[in-house]
């Protein structure tokens, strides 16, 4: 399934807007140039179909091109292929490796054959434009800027950014989530989720060891910021004079309503994505172990079952349903999903609030693979109660027999 393709950028408009207020003229210029170039790309779509066979099946083969600070992809120089050796340019190798890790993650973990599921070629373009403060997926290829060197650095340095951008392609070929408002925020969240999963999987990190950050490496060393976004703590990724405070909410009661325009981030897609991001983090940490196992499969199957206009509520309901299909009703996995969405202010449809609260409480206190799940705990309680009732019934029967005997005398 495909939809109208967009240029999906890792740096949201509100960060570039903030840089336009900088006292540093070079920073302002880089931000403005980045915004103008991105707007042109979105408007013209000329960057697509830069060479024949861009979307042809190719067993996920990687090719990296060097734009040499140019903006026209067809003129870029081929610098590395699957048959070639490592380059002396670290950006070439980072892009090549990041494309491969993302491809291998989808193949090995989710049995998906490249981005489109049909072996799509993976093409990366490095050194795009001068001081370009972004990286993007344009529907056919991945493009990396070098950053301005003051606020942002080379975008090939963050494997989760590569995973994030390529996942926009996966979303295009599955649900085709529309890029505005809640469907758009889900689109961004899915990319954040699988971006961090690529990073965690490649480093073999457990949910406890992972940092749950997106783009920690894109800032220059002098910038006081943890990352672009945090799935663990939306709204706390950064708070500094250069960028202001991270505006992401972690709960529906803080949902941000913005206009569906480019400057409005198409309804705040990079902002409100914090809500489903938090839901995934909570699900993964309650299940425990490795997030690329059960949590990833639940989210991936839910993505495939979604449509272009899927809302937060729809997606939450689908994850609950998929958790049941994959792991069973009232399994530890399903209870973790239920509790996670409830904690971000979204209640699963059809589950009465009281029951949801009770089950969520069970998930919080029993949750995690290897822990006693909610059904087992409830079963024990029922057995204990049944034994008490049986003992009481026996006492009552004995008392009645004793009274009957006394009466007969």
Q: Got a strand count?
A: 10
Largest sheet descriptor: 6 strands, mixed
Low-confidence stretches: 45-55, 369-385
Q: Indicate the CATH architecture of the largest domain.
A: Orthogonal Bundle
**Rg, please?**
26 Å
Overall pLDDT metric = 87
For the termini, the CA-CA separation is 86 Å
In N-to-C order, the SSE pattern is EHHEEHEEEHHEEEEHHHHHHH
Tell me what portion of residues adopts beta-strand conformation: 5-15%
Please state the overall shape, judged from the principal axes of the Cα atoms.
globular
Q: What spatial order of strands do you see in the largest sheet?
A: 1-5-6-4-2-3
Q: SS-based structural class?
A: alpha+beta
- Determine the CATH topology of the largest domain: Neutral Protease, domain 2
- The CATH class name of the largest domain reads Mainly Alpha
Helix content: 40-55%
What is the number of independent domains?
3
Number of helices: 12
CATH superfamily of the largest domain: Neutral Protease Domain 2
């Amino acid at each position: 399934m495909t939809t109208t393709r967009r240029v999906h950028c890792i740096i949201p408009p509100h960060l570039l807007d903030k840089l336009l207020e900088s006292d540093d003229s070079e920073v302002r210029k880089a931000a403005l140039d980045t915004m103008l170039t991105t707007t042109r790309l979105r408007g013209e779509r000329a960057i697509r179909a830069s060479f024949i066979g861009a979307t042809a099946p190719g067993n996920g083969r990687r090719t990296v091109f060097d734009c040499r600070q140019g903006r026209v992809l067809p003129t870029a120089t081929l610098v590395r292929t699957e048959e070639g050796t490592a380059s002396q340019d670290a950006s070439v190798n980072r892009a090549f490796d990041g494309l491969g890790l993302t491809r291998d993650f989808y193949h090995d973990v989710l049995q998906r054959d490249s981005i489109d599921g049909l072996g799509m070629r993976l093409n990366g373009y490095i050194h795009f434009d001068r001081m370009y403060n972004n990286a993007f997926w344009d529907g056919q290829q991945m493009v990396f800027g070098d950053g301005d060197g003051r606020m942002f650095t080379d975008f090939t340095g963050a494997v989760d950014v590569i995973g994030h951008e390529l996942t926009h392609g996966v979303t295009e070929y599955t649900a085709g989530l529309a890029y505005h408002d809640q469907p758009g925020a889900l689109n961004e969240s899915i990319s954040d989720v699988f971006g961090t999963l690529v990073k965690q999987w490649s480093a073999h990190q457990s949910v406890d060891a992972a940092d749950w950050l997106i783009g920690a490496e894109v800032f220059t060393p002098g910038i006081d910021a943890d990352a672009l976004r945090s799935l663990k703590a939306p709204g706390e990724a950064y708070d500094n004079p250069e960028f202001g405070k991270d505006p992401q909410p972690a709960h529906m009661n803080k949902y941000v309503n913005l206009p569906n325009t480019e400057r409005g981030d198409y309804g705040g897609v990079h902002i409100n994505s914090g809500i489903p991001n938090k839901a995934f983090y909570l699900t993964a940490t309650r299940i425990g172990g490795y997030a690329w196992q059960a949590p990833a499969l639940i989210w991936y199957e839910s993505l495939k079952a979604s449509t272009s206009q899927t809302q937060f509520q729809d997606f939450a309901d689908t994850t609950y349903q998929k958790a049941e299909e994959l792991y069973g009703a009232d399994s530890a996995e399903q209870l973790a999903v239920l509790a996670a969405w409830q904690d971000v202010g979204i209640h699963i449809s059809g589950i009465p609030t009281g029951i949801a609260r009770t089950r969520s409480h069970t998930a919080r206190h029993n949750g995690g693979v290897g822990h006693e799940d909610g059904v087992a705990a409830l079963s024990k309680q029922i057995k204990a109660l049944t034994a008490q009732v049986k003992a009481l019934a026996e006492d009552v029967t004995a008392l009645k027999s004793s009274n009957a005997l006394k009466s007969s005398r």
